[in-house]
Amino acid sequence: MVFSSRIRTFMLVCVIASIVPAVIFGEPRLVDGQHGGDPWRNILFDFQTLIGGGLAVFAAWWTVGAMEKADQAAQVRHNQIIEATVFREKRALLRAEHHMLAYTKVVRQICSRLTSDNIATIRSKGPRVLTTVYNNAITFVSRLKRGFAHEDWIQAAHLLEPEMIAISMEVETVCDQFLLFSPTQEERFAPDFSPTEDQFEWLVGNNSLLVVHLCEKLERAMEGWKIV
């Protein structure tokens, strides 16, 4: 594009240098007998219509070239803006993904232990272990639920596809269900706290398995996030 612009400028200078001096300073043709005068000036006046048409074509070519150059510059600026926007959106997705995966992986590990087969083993280790397992499950499921209100997730929310939105809502719903009968944080961390049979049983079985299943589903969906 720079080379083409230089060619147009050089041609314009040549045209001006060949026409203007001859018209202004060339010897005019004598009217009597139509002879004499500057030959180049005579040619310019004899073919002025043709030359004018050529200059008009040259001007149009110059204008089109300038417009193409302006369009290309505008396209470059547009691409730069798009790249900057995509970069910000990618960062938002990566932050949201990293933030949410940190919770889902821990929740899966904890809730996968809350099965009917493991109840007897957990209880056999005493009330302290039972309370610790219970509090860990409640704590990290609560953090997972709050993760959907985290700034990183909110910034990426407008990038979510309908399928991801549906999965996110499912995870939030199952978290609410999992925490339905949980005591407050102050009660859970009181020195004499121990979960009741009903409270512990509520976490075991279908509720814990559903949490694990939906966390895995959410993780698979996040692996497919991309900016088009």
TrEMBL record:
Keywords, comma-separated and alphabetical: Membrane, Transmembrane, Transmembrane helix
Q: Which domain of life is it from?
A: Bacteria
**Membrane spanning residue stretches:** 43-64
Keyword Membrane in record: yes
The protein in question is named Uncharacterized protein
Q: Which organism is it from?
A: Rhizobium tumorigenes
